[in-house]
Write a structure and sequence with these properties.
mainly alpha, about 0% strand, globular
Length: about 375
């Protein structure tokens, strides 16, 4: 693996590109990062990448954004942490701000069905390739494969993802303790990786102040586990029910914007900030919801090597890693059902998977998917949703 310090310009360009082209939600974002930093650039080993991915599952906030921040920390420490994180967030923030402007100006959202029709099958292929590449390392023996199967089963039965993650880690830790011959090894504390939360919140007003807007989104960013898709319940509780800042229709529109734009789904906050307080509100809301992610990664990042160096803590992390990959597989199946809707999209996904095998860059495939979606709309190549 490359040990040389990565130029900040290279970090910025990579994550700006990923932030501009990463459609499909956190699983797709993670798959694209794996392709770039493990396969192409060899900045990280597969094991290191899995450790960072597992660590993002144990702290609140947007998983894929936190993974980008972790990668920045690995390559250039504090400067890399900021550059990678901000670069990944910035394109989505600008696009959702533009959607906010259009929404405020015209009262509606631009249609993007054609874009998603062509891009989503490609994203499914990208995630499948990442799963194929990471699975042998994460599920390296029969026991870990059975843990992965148990995770998929429990999630299908409705068990919360966070309980499943910690359960898998605890199982592997207990298995390690059972096999240990010596009991004098020290275990580094996992407390900094456990859920943290702030208690700050804004006073209810019909029109939020900028500080109130910041603290509401900072609170959400500090306590929200899982992917950006769990964001809806938190936004509804605070912005619709508690404070009355948004209507139900506006909230649904805001979540739709987060889905149709690339990059982190958490930039839904950017759109809401723009609708409530204009461009400055968009900036403040974005800063509020993402700031906790930078803090949590800064606290947890330096601990990851120490965790891997301890047999017990490494066993816990192995359990979390295989559970994370199993959850990613569940999300991929859900994304596949929503994306592959006819023989045309099925063929597009298979073609993208074949091209990935021949090392075609995923960015070009996404651009090709978007072009295909436009052609489908323009010339009726396939049925649009």
């Amino acid at each position: 693996m490359s040990q040389e310090a990565t130029p900040l310009r290279e970090l910025a360009l990579l994550f700006l590109r990923l932030g501009t082209t990463a459609f499909g939600g956190p699983a797709a974002h993670i798959a694209m990062m794996e392709e770039e930093v493990v396969r192409r650039r060899q900045w990280l080993s597969p094991q290191r990448f899995l450790d960072l991915l597992g660590a993002t599952q144990l702290i609140p906030g947007p998983n894929s954004t936190e993974l980008a921040i972790h990668i920045g920390w690995e390559r250039r420490r504090w400067a890399g942490l900021l550059v990678a994180g901000v670069s990944f967030i910035l394109p989505a923030m600008l696009l959702t701000s533009l959607c906010g402007y259009v929404y405020v100006r015209f009262g509606t959202l631009p249609s993007a069905a054609w874009l998603l029709y062509g891009v989503k099958p490609v994203m499914v292929a990208i995630v499948v390739q990442a799963l194929i590449g990471l699975a042998p390392k994460a599920a390296s023996n029969l026991r870990l494969r059975l843990v992965a199967l148990a995770v998929v089963t429990l999630v299908a039965l409705g068990v919360h993802e966070l309980w499943v993650l910690f359960g898998a880690g605890a199982f592997e830790l207990l298995w390690s303790l059972r096999r240990e011959q010596r009991s004098d090894a020290a275990v580094p504390s996992l407390i900094p990786l456990l859920p943290l939360a702030t208690t700050a919140a804004a006073a209810p007003t019909l029109l939020p102040s900028l500080s109130g807007l910041f603290w509401v989104f900072a609170k959400i960013g500090s306590v929200l586990f899982g992917s950006g898709y769990t964001l809806l319940a938190f936004l509804r509780a605070d912005l619709v029910t508690r404070y009355g800042w948004l209507t139900e229709v506006q909230l649904v529109d805001a979540v739709a914007v987060g889905q149709i734009t690339p990059g982190p789904v958490f930039t839904t906050a950017t759109f809401i900030g723009y609708v409530l307080r204009g461009p400055l509100g968009a900036l403040v809301a974005t800063a509020g919801i993402f700031l906790p992610a930078f803090v949590f990664v800064a606290l947890s990042g330096p601990l990851i090597p120490r965790i891997r160096d301890s047999a017990r803590a490494a066993a816990f992390l192995d359990g979390v890693n295989v559970a994370s990959l199993a959850l990613m597989a569940v999300v991929t199946a859900q994304l596949g059902r929503a994306s592959i809707v006819d023989p045309v999209t099925a063929g597009l996904a298979l073609l993208a998977l074949a091209l990935l095998y021949y090392r075609v860059n995923s960015t070009w495939l996404i651009a090709g998917g978007a072009l295909f979606g436009w052609l489908a709309q323009r010339f009726g190549v396939a049925r649009l949703l």
